[in-house]
Design a protein that fits this description.
Length: about 475
């Protein structure tokens, strides 16, 4: 996946950046703006983009309907581009609801094995991604085969049986093993655990990168019951971008509705009093993945556009920074900046982000920087609408966070009109070191000496559910 282009996209969570593997990582940090896709009219990273369409015309012909069975259907009819983009999300539940860490990756591999051949027969592509609070299926198919693809998808979502799960256990284990070896995935997982871990040590989001040992210990019969309770319409959100008749979607269904939908209660984040620095030890890694993240206001909070502009301003002043976001269905989200580079450069990136955050928390932006941040925050997200797949990601996130098209337009308008003083106020809250978590995945021996200049460093191992293996005290003077 790509890095989102705009700061509203950053806070709304559309299209989080795909984290490159260590082998793919460039020799130098990437530039702030992602390279546009072929045919894109995305603006230069150095100049403010031209003013986009008026907010009243951003999202047209978008309808969202909650059906009687609980399924939430969002449909955007666009002039036929020849491709229909479909997304189906399931809420996996939380630890308090009996969520099983490791069950979502297992279900994902089972659905991939079941659906890929049937969808491929219609020329459709499928991706199934376990997320921190659910599971997302994405299908891209030619417009003339979209009805057939939806039929295949509908017929392939019966809860898996224990024998079927047994056949896909090895693939699920391989998925999680690869994830635990990934620098970006482990850096993110560590930060999210730090921001959201409950005092009971149960993560409020179901699948915060489960240790394969957990998956090995799961019983296929237990997972089959868990899947049957999740593959239900009241836990699902269907998003379709393309010229699909409404009658087709009215007949489409998944599973059987439960008598009462499980309530969605937002977890209370832990109180933060100081900067936290985490290092996920990947011995021998030649690259490192660094991120600086914090909690963002709910997308429906009036402060959200102001924080968006503030983070945009911060990212534009740190070379190599990419937007980082993890949005959740309860409206909460984690937002920040990340970069992948050699260990020394990754540490420099952390220092630059923290330093600029402090600076932007103490003085107002100059006029040119303010104009650039406002323009990017309000208009860059429009480039997410160039293709059906990009439009799908925006709508998926809006629906997940409960933001209407009208609410999205209001956020853009607020970002356009925000003042330098309002950005300063937002940054004084969002940019304080005590509100931030630094998470770096890489060789701890090469990272910790310099990182200790900022705060105490907790060294974690990706195995054993990110257990702390060392605590290294704060050493402001360095070594």
């Amino acid at each position: 996946m790509r890095a989102a282009l705009g700061a509203l996209a950053l806070l709304l969570g559309c299209a989080p950046a795909r984290v490159p593997s260590e082998a793919e990582a460039p020799a130098r940090p990437r530039t702030t703006a992602s390279a546009p896709e072929a045919g894109s009219t995305a603006p230069s990273a150095l100049e403010p983009p031209e003013r986009g369409p008026s907010p009243e015309r951003t999202l047209t012909d978008v309808t969202t309907t909650r059906r009687a069975d609980g399924l939430l259907v969002t449909r955007w009819v666009r002039p036929d581009p020849g491709v229909t983009a479909i997304a189906l999300e399931f809420d996996a539940g939380r630890a308090e609801e009996g969520a099983l860490r490791g069950a979502s990756p297992w279900l994902a591999e089972t659905l991939v094995a079941r659906l890929t051949p049937a969808l491929g027969a219609h020329g459709a592509t499928l991706s199934v991604e376990p997320t921190l609070d659910g599971l997302t299926l994405r299908v891209d198919v030619s417009s003339e085969r979209s009805a057939a693809a939806l039929t295949v998808l509908e017929g392939g979502l019966a809860p898996p049986t224990p024998p079927e799960l047994t056949r896909t256990r090895a693939a699920a284990l391989a998925r999680e093993t690869r994830a635990l070896a990934g620098l970006g995935a482990t850096a993110r997982a560590a930060a999210l655990r730090e921001l959201f871990e409950l005092p009971t040590s149960r993560h409020p989001h179901a699948d915060a990168l489960a240790d394969p040992s957990r998956l090995r210990a799961l019983d296929a019969r237990e997972v089959a019951r868990w899947c049957a309770a999740r593959l239900r319409p009241e836990r699902a959100r269907l998003t379709v971008v393309g010229d699909v008749p409404s009658s087709t979607l009215e007949r489409w269904t998944v599973g059987a509705a439960a008598p009462v939908a499980a309530p969605h209660v937002a977890p209370a984040p832990l109180a933060r009093t100081k900067l936290t620095v985490l290092v996920v030890d990947q011995p021998g890694a030649t690259m490192a993945h660094a991120l600086v993240a914090g909690l963002a206001p709910s997308a429906t909070d009036p402060r959200a556009p102001l924080v968006a502009v503030a983070w945009t301003a911060l990212g534009s002043q740190v070379p190599g920074a990419r937007a980082f976001v993890e949005p959740f269905a309860d409206g909460s989200s984690v937002v920040g900046l990340e970069a992948q580079a050699a260990p020394a450069a990754a540490v420099d990136f952390v220092s630059a982000v923290l330093g600029r955050a402090v600076e932007l928390s103490s003085r107002t932006l100059d006029e040119r920087s303010l104009q650039l941040a406002r323009a990017r925050a309000s208009d860059d997200v429009l480039f997410e609408l160039e293709t059906p797949s990009r439009s799908r990601e925006l709508l998926v996130t809006l629906t997940r966070l409960g933001v209407s098209p009208e609410g999205f337009d209001r956020m853009r308008e607020t970002a356009r009109e925000t003042s330098a003083r309002a950005v300063l106020t937002a940054m004084r809250s969002a940019g304080q070191p005590s509100a931030l978590v630094v998470s770096v995945a890489g060789d701890a021996a090469r990272l910790t000496p310099a990182l200790r200049r900022h705060a105490e460093v907790l060294v974690l191992t990706a195995e054993r559910d990110f257990a702390i293996v060392a605590r290294l005290g704060h050493a402001p003077a360095g070594f």
